[in-house]
Amino acid sequence: MSDRAAIERAVTELAAGRLVAVPTETVYGLAADATNGEAVAGIFEAKGRPRFNPLIVHVADRAMAERIARFDPLSAALADRFWPGPLTLVLPLQQASNIHPLVTVGLDTVALRMPQGLARDVIAALGKPIAAPSANTSGRISPTSAQAVQDDLGSKLAYILDGGSADVGVESTILKVEGDIVRLLRPGGLTVEEIEDAIGQDVVVGSAGPAIEAPGMLASHYAPDASVRLHAEHIEAGEALLAFGPDRASGFESAAAVRNLSEKGDLREAAANLYAHLQALDCYGARMIAVEPVPQHGLGAAINDRLSRAAAPRGQ
C-alpha cells in the first residue's frame, strides 16, 4: 500500500472514532481523535491505562497547537526551534479548546507535540489533533515497529500504519515552562544539553510537586515480563544481558541471551535499539535481564530513565 493510501485509510478510521497505530520518529503511537470522548476512552481501555495518567496531543502545525493551548514566549521559542520533533510542551489549555477532558484527565494544562513523518501527515489530513500515547499495553515496553504493535495490541486496533522502525526509539522529552524556569518532566529523544544550548539557560530537572503532570511519570513503566537489574558488572548464569559498548561484564558467557544497545557505545544508536532489544531478550524467558551501565549524559539520561522505571517494583 502506498503512503497516500495508508494515510487515507488511517484518516478514515480515525474520523469514524476508531483506534489507529501511527509511526512517529520516537515510538509508535496509539491514536484517536482527541476531540472525541468515546474514541479517547478507547485508548485507555485498549492500553489498560490508569485514568489519572494524561495523554499527549499531537498536532500538525502551530496554528492547530495555538487553538488548543496558550504559548508563553519561551515555550513558543522552544516550539520554533524543535518542532516538528521529539519535544512535548505542557501548556495552559485555551478556554475554547475542543480537546476532550479525558485527554487532560481534568488538568488545566495539555501536553502538546508536533511529530515528524507520517503521523503528522495523518493529522493534517484529518484536520484534527490526535491523542496518541505509545501503542502498547500500559506499563509495558513501548513499540518501535509495526510488528511490535501487532504482537501486543493488534486485535484491538482498526489499523496499523507501518512506517518502518522508529528513528529515535525513546519517547519525547517533556518540558514545562514556569515563569522563567524550564522544567524537565520526562527525559527523552531531545537531550537536556540541546535544550540548554538553544535557550541559553539551565533546565531544572523534575516536577515541582508529587502530582502527575505529564505522561511517563509513573514509577513503574516500560517493563518487560522479566525483572530488570541495573548497573550489572557480573552476569549470573541464566540471566539475559542487555549490553552497552565494547566491554562486557564478567560472566557474560553464561548469559541466556545477549543484545548490545551499541557495540561502539553510541547513545543515539542505543536509544533507537532500547525497546526492541528489551523485547527480544524478554522472549528468551529468563527470570532476569541484567543491564550493563549506560552513561548518564546526552540521550543516556532518557535511556537510564526508561531502564530505572522498567526495573522498579511493579504496580507503582
From TrEMBL:
SUPFAM superfamilies cross-referenced by the UniProt entry: YrdC/RibB
YrdC-like domain sequence ranges: 4-190
One Pfam entry name: Sua5_C
InterPro entries xrefs: DHBP_synth_RibB-like_a/b_dom, Sua5-like_dom, Sua5/YwlC_C, Sua5_C, T(6)A37_SUA5, TC-AMP_synthase_SUA5
Keywords: ATP-binding, Cytoplasm, Nucleotide-binding, Nucleotidyltransferase, Transferase, tRNA processing
Superkingdom of source: Bacteria
EC number(s) on file: 2.7.7.87
Localization of this protein: Cytoplasm
Broad class of where this protein is predominantly found: cytoplasm
Catalysis: reaction(s): L-threonine + hydrogencarbonate + ATP = L-threonylcarbamoyladenylate + diphosphate + H2O
Keyword flag tRNA processing: yes
Role played: Required for the formation of a threonylcarbamoyl group on adenosine at position 37 (t(6)A37) in tRNAs that read codons beginning with adenine.
Family: Belongs to the SUA5 family.
Name of the molecule in the record: Threonylcarbamoyl-AMP synthase
Origin species: Tianweitania aestuarii
